[in-house]
Amino acid sequence: MQESARYQAIFEVIKEVFSDKQPADNILNSYFRERRYIGSKDRRFISENVWDIIRHRRRLEFEAQDTDIRKIMIVWAKNKNLDVVFGGGQYGMLILDDDEINWLNNLPEILYPQDVEAECPLWLFEKIKDFELPKSLNRQATADFRINAGSRETIIKKMKDEGFDVVSTPFSPIGVRAEERINLNNCITFQDGLIEPQDEASQIAAILADVRPEHKVIDYCCGAGGKSLTLSYLMQNKGQIEAHDVDERRLEAILPRMKRLQANNIKTVKTAEVGQDYDRFIIDAPCSGSGTWRRSPDAKFRLSEKKLLEIVEIQSSLLDLASKKVKQGGRIVYITCSILEEENSEQITKFLSTNKEFSLIDMQTIWDKKIESPYPFVDKNCLKFNPLTTGTDGFFIAVLERK
């Protein structure tokens, strides 16, 4: 592709992403799928710059004082060779006209408000009440994996022999980390079913569920089933895990992963098939996804206050459902990938106020039994992971036991 055509492609993708109707990943994948003539180097260039613009959306809009995509692109490219970016031609970006050049040259010096500097919508920034946390969630995440066979040391050696720079995760005893993304199509260790992508905090959530082979376990609202697969590994492929999601199409995504990882103790169930007397009722709760903004920085712009209220109501109903399904002495494991209090601690406080037969488990006790690294939290009941404190996605974990 000609250089200007690359920037035109970036413009086209950003225009669709900033309409806030679909995830940026889906838009990029669809764009490239419909244009198979675009080579791998061009795809990488386009993708990297699209994500750069998304991660700096608030500042670019603030500088441009406009949401017009072309003006945003002009501000973004102001320190580049503008004759290249706006090179014209049949497939390139339109050449800058005199009015645009004059507008760019007369942009005032700007001091960013904190919410803009943190690259966070104002209403969310006011909820988070922490300048550094949204900033940390705007940086690119590490690539974390869970081992699925053998020892971690053996897996790390195998991946290094393939040319991947990986290390042990600091907390999860079954985690491996790379600082940069790995193309799994070129990773034999992955193809052989020896590793599975999973953020370290998500791994720990499964570990702290404290499952045993004799347990009756359900992973409710499991999506594509990442935690179900980890539970299968932790249970040594014994017992029975029920994987549930209201969207049966999402649930189908677990089937090829089960086959690759040889996870034979997972059974997918529909809502009508959910039973009673579970030892572990794991709620992988639908949430704002605010803890995963490192991986999906565009998601914060698709979230609204109305949508958040709907999500909170769903979470509350799921806790009520779990309270009726878990056996005496059994546990509800409540998990979100959110950093917002109304989805996390406030949900637990509300639930406990009306469900006196449940109490919070001392999480440090489970941690010390399952994980060698020192307990990194002050609170012993509700665990709050985030990039600042644990170097992971934002995750919340609470375990409630029925007396």
Describe the structure.
The protein has 403 residues and is α/β, with parallel strands linked by helices. The protein has three domains: 109 residues, no CATH class; 55 residues, Sun protein, domain 3 (Alpha-Beta Plaits, 2-Layer Sandwich), CATH 3.30.70; 203 residues, Rossmann fold (3-Layer(aba) Sandwich), CATH 3.40.50. Helix content is 43%, strand content 15%. The protein contains 20 helices and twelve strands. The strands form two sheets. Strands 5, 6, 7, 8, 9, 10, 11 and 12 form an eight-stranded mixed sheet that branches. It has a four-stranded antiparallel sheet with strand order 2-3-1-4. α1 packs across α3, α4 packs across α5 and α13 crosses α14.
Question: What's the layout of helices and strands?
Answer:
Elements: H1 3-17, H2 24-33, H3 40-55, H4 57-64, H5 69-76, H6 82-85, H7 98-105, H8 114-117, H9 122-128, H10 132-136, E1 143-147, H11 152-161, E2 166-168, E3 175-178, H12 188-191, E4 195-197, H13 200-208, E5 216-220, H14 226-234, E6 240-244, H15 248-251, H16 254-261, E7 266-269, E8 278-284, H17 299-302, H18 305-325, E9 326-336, H19 345-354, E10 358-360, H20 363-370, E11 382-385, E12 395-402
Parallel strand pairs: 5-6, 5-8, 6-7, 8-9
Antiparallel strand pairs: 1-3, 1-4, 2-3, 9-12, 10-12, 11-12
Summarize the structure in short:
This protein has 403 residues and is an alpha/beta fold. Helices cover 43% and strands 15% of the residues. The chain has three domains: 3-111, no CATH class; 143-197, Alpha-Beta Plaits, CATH 3.30.70.1170; 200-402, Rossmann fold (3-Layer(aba) Sandwich).
